[in-house]
């Protein structure tokens, strides 16, 4: 890892990490989207709405894996860049143990309160049975999701992004196969779809252990220990990623509640379709952030400032043009995206198509916001990273959801996230211009 990271061109190293990261994140999103496609076609719109209501549980587990995984992986790469391999291995072991313990605590607490939790997430008497079935499986086996994703982050940071990608591909393909078997062959309900996701994730985690067969690896388990100082530092650095995923849950809940208010059950069903499409697009932009995190962290530890500068510039341009491409894709193929998830009534279909065309404007700004958040996080400028995340996914979104629908109806709901992303991107641009002395990477 060391020679290529320090001697290959910055663009070559970036692409080497970008492509596996994008493919891996796309495969991860397929784990969720496949559930929606199979459930929507096999069990109908009500079941689809039920698992959409329960989906924030998956987001919370994913958030925890990113919180501790990216926090730990950032410190791991910094230690590798500084040539302190023993410290890097201690950080790896410490992080995985911390993730496992905290996941179990959260899962047990949520499991005991799963019925009121389902109602709080937007369930009603019609959708509650489906939401509870899906949620119960995730709460029981959610620690597998967190361990697999965090382990994947460390493998990527240890110079093996291709294996992380392979793990995600295996999980996605197996999830599709198991969804078909459980729903169509065994005729199971939404519980079968959730079990398919968990089982596929477990196999993906096993694949990652092949990394330990590499001779050039630095990653290794060492004698476990606990350090409050290391735990706090890990949690602090990874906190923006946690907030980002929690924000996704806030997004889902907020849009569900707003759609019930302004468009009824048809609106919730339409949003369910958009939400699955959004998960795919979101993972693509998250993949860009995941690609630069190991590089920025390593260059920080190795004090290779020029390479750090070039990396963030390339990533920002890539995110911007990718966002434009995704926006245009949504404009042209909105109808095809809706059809992918099932045969819906004309009302639901019309709402979903309109929503996709409006909502996809967000992607012109979202990619840059993700890249900059990751840059600030990987360079330990945590306050700036937290501000970006809180503003775009929680504060501004909620503000727009509470005001825009009163002015322009349902379109105001669809446009809440795009406007949030646009405002945050503009603020980042102004902030960087004013702070160019303290942020030389963007001069």
Q: What report would you give on this structure?
A:
It is a multi-pass membrane protein. Helix content is 85%, strand content 0%. The protein is mainly α and 443 residues long. Helix 2 runs antiparallel to helix 3, helix 3 packs antiparallel against helix 4 and helix 3 runs parallel beside helix 6. The chain starts with a helix and ends in a 9-residue tail after the last helix.
In short:
The protein is mainly α. It has 15 helices and no strands.
Helix fraction, binned, reads over 70%
Total strands: 0
End-to-end separation in angstroms reads: 29 Å
Look at the helices and sheets and give the structural class.
mainly alpha
Helices and strands in order:
Elements: H1 2-7, H2 10-43, H3 45-81, H4 85-112, H5 114-120, H6 128-157, H7 161-185, H8 190-208, H9 228-302, H10 305-340, H11 346-359, H12 363-378, H13 382-408, H14 410-414, H15 416-434
Helix pairs in contact: 2-3, 2-7, 2-8, 2-9, 2-10, 3-4, 3-6, 3-9, 4-6, 5-6, 6-7, 6-8, 7-8, 9-10, 9-11, 9-12, 9-13, 10-11, 10-12, 12-13, 12-15, 13-15
Question: Characteristics of this structure?
Answer:
globular; 15 helices; 443 residues; disordered C terminus; mainly alpha
């Amino acid at each position: 890892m060391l020679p290529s990271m320090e001697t290959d061109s910055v663009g070559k190293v970036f692409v080497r990490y970008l492509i596996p990261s994008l493919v891996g994140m796309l495969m991860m999103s397929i784990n969720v989207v496949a559930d929606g496609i199979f459930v929507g076609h096999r069990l109908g719109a009500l079941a689809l709405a039920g698992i959409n209501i329960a989906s924030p549980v998956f987001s919370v587990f994913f958030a925890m894996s990113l919180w501790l995984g990216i926090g730990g992986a950032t410190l791991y790469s910094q230690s590798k860049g500084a040539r302190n391999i023993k410290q890097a291995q201690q950080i790896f072991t410490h992080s995985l143990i911390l993730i496992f313990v905290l996941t179990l605590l959260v899962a047990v607490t949520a499991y005991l309160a799963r019925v009121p939790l389902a109602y709080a997430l937007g369930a009603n008497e019609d959708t509650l049975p489906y939401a509870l079935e899906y949620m119960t499986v995730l709460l029981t086996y959610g620690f597998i999701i967190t361990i697999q994703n965090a382990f994947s982050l460390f493998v990527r940071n240890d110079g093996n992004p291709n294996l992380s990608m392979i793990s995600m591909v295996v999980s996605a393909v197996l999830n599709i196969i198991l969804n078909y078997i459980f729903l169509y062959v065994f005729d199971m309900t939404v519980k079968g779809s959730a079990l398919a996701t968990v089982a596929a994730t477990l196999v993906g985690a096993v694949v990652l252990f092949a990394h330990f067969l590499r001779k050039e690896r630095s990653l290794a388990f060492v004698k476990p220990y606990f350090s409050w100082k290391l735990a706090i530092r890990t949690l602090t650095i990874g906190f923006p990623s946690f907030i980002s995923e929690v924000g996704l849950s806030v997004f889902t809940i907020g849009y569900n509640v707003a759609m019930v208010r302004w468009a009824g059950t048809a609106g919730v069903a339409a949003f369910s379709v958009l939400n699955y499409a959004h998960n795919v697009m979101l993972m693509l932009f998250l993949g860009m952030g995941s690609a630069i995190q190991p590089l920025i962290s390593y260059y920080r530890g190795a004090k290779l400032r020029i390479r750090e500068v070039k990396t963030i510039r390339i990533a920002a341009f890539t995110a911007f043009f990718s966002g434009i491409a995704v926006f245009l894709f949504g404009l042209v193929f909105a109808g095809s995206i809706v059809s992918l998830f099932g045969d819906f009534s004309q009302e639901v279909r019309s709402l979903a198509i309109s929503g996709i065309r409006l909502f996809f404007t967000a992607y012109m700004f979202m990619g840059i916001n993700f890249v900059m958040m990751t840059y600030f996080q990987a360079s330990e400028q945590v306050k700036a990273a937290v501000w970006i995340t809180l503003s775009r996914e929680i504060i501004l979104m909620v503000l727009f959801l509470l005001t825009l629908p009163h002015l322009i109806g349902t379109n105001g709901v669809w446009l809440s996230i795009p406007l949030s992303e646009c405002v945050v991107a503009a603020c980042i641009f102004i902030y960087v211009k004013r702070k160019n002395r303290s942020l030389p990477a963007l001069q």
